[in-house]
Structure formats: structure tokens, C-alpha cells
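Reminder to self: C-alpha cells first, then the designed residues, so the page reads top to bottom the way the pipeline ran.
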């Protein structure tokens, strides 16, 4: 299905819960006219709450992230995930919030 940058951006803003991606999904989501759209990647880290890093907001659930870390769903940095045992459980709770 063809999509435009504007359509994807609007969907990120209105339905951020649909944009909790791992790295592969994120690159697929940000592909417009077969090119990676960097402003869409920024929109993910801006509007989608993946928590954790206070300085640079995360943009992926798994894999190389905007915050500089390489995330795994079973990771558990002390204090980062607001009381949840692992990143996976924390992200699932964000999904359910809506
Ligand atoms: Zn997305
Ligand atoms: Zn991150």
C-alpha cells in the first residue's frame, strides 16, 4: 500500500500505540518511496513513549536505538523501566495504557 510521509506522521501523532516498533519494523514504517525518512524516525522518538533514556528518547523496542543503546527485550537496567522487571513488560504496559 503506498503511503506518504504526511500519512505516516499523522498516524504516529494520533496512534502512537501503533508505532511501538523493533528496529526492523521501524525502518519499514519510515520507508517512503523506498527511502528511509529521517523526519519520520524522529517523529517516532518524539511521539511514541518508549521510556527509559531521559536525554535522547528511544525509537525502537529492540535493536540499535536513537539513545545509543542496543536494546534487548529481556534487558533490565536498574530503575529504567519504572518498576517493571524487563523492558518487554514495560513496553507491554505502555501498549495497554490506551
Ligand atoms: Zn511506526
Ligand atoms: Zn533506547
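Designed residues (98 positions):
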Amino acid at each position: 500500500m503506498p503511503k506518504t510521509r504526511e500519512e505516516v506522521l499523522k498516524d504516529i501523532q494520533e496512534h502512537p500505540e501503533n508505532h511501538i516498533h523493533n528496529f526492523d519494523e521501524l525502518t519499514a514504517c519510515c520507508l517512503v518511496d523506498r527511502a528511509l525518512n529521517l523526519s519520520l524516525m524522529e517523529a517516532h522518538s518524539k511521539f511514541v513513549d518508549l521510556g527509559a533514556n531521559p536525554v535522547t528518547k528511544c525509537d525502537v523496542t529492540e535493536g540499535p536505538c536513537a539513545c545509543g543503546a542496543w536494546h534487548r527485550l529481556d534487558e533490565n537496567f536498574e530503575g529504567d523501566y519504572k518498576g517493571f522487571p524487563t523492558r518487554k513488560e514495560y513496553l507491554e504496559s505502555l501498549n495497554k495504557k490506551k
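DSSP finds four helices and four strands in the chain.
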